[in-house]
């Protein structure tokens, strides 16, 4: 089912938003200072081409460890990103979502565009994994939290 969803997504417009992510990434690479954002754009652009069966998850939620992108510098990076490119990519996804919502078959695609719009607003500190890996990480974190609360 994921393969069918990804195929329909790609041919019915997902390719355009993926290319837009790549274009923003190339612009970021040219600026030299924007290389970290450019790399993120390429990864999220690939995700935008075929989003079904995968999910964006916070790296801290996945690894239970802070890194450069999940701390204060990540927050600052997301603020810069939001002001320079995030709002425009998110707007593109919202417009695409509204267009998808006009047809019944497009509703799942519209929902996916809205998820991608959220990612477009603050991509620093996120990584793309399969839905199963994301669910396993969340289950592990929930079990660890329950164990922590019981030990009180």
Give the structure's gist in a few sentences.
With 152 residues, the chain is mostly helical. 74% of the residues lie in helices and 7% in strands.
Features:
6 helices, two-stranded antiparallel sheet, mainly alpha, globular, about 75% helix, about 150 residues
Question: Can you characterise this structure?
Answer:
The protein is mostly helical and 152 residues long. It contains six helices and two strands, in the order ααβαααβα. The chain has a two-stranded antiparallel ribbon with strand order 1-2. α1 (2-30) runs antiparallel to α2 (35-49).
According to DSSP, the number of beta strands is 2
Share of β-strand residues = 5-15%
Q: What is the 3D shape?
A: globular
Give the distance, in angstroms, between the N- and C-terminal Cα atoms: 44 Å
Derived from helix and strand composition plus strand pairing, the structural class reads: mainly alpha
As laid out across the biggest beta sheet, the strand order is 1-2
Low-confidence regions: none
Task: Summarize the main sheet.
Answer: 2 strands, antiparallel
Task: Return the average pLDDT rounded to an integer.
Answer: 90
C-alpha-based Rg, rounded: 17 Å
The helix count comes to 6
Helix proportion range: over 70%
Q: Tell me the series of helices and strands, N- to C-terminal.
A: HHEHHHEH
SSE blueprint and pairings:
Elements: H1 2-30, H2 35-49, E1 54-58, H3 59-63, H4 72-100, H5 107-121, E2 126-130, H6 131-150
Antiparallel strand pairs: 1-2
């Amino acid at each position: 089912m994921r393969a069918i969803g990804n195929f329909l997504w790609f041919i019915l417009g997902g390719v355009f938003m993926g290319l837009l992510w790549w274009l923003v990434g190339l612009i970021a690479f040219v600026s030299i200072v924007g290389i970290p954002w450019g790399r993120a754009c390429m990864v999220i652009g690939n995700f935008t081409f075929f989003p079904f069966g995968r999910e964006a998850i916070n790296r801290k939620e996945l690894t239970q460890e802070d890194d450069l992108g999940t701390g204060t510098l990540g927050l600052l990076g997301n603020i810069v990103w939001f002001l320079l490119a995030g709002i425009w990519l998110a707007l593109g996804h919202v417009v695409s979502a509204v267009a998808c919502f006009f047809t019944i078959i497009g509703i799942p695609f519209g929902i996916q565009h809205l998820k991608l719009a959220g990612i477009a607003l603050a991509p620093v500190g996120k990584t793309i994994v399969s839905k199963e890996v994301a669910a396993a990480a969340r289950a592990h974190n929930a079990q660890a939290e329950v164990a922590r609360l019981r030990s009180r």
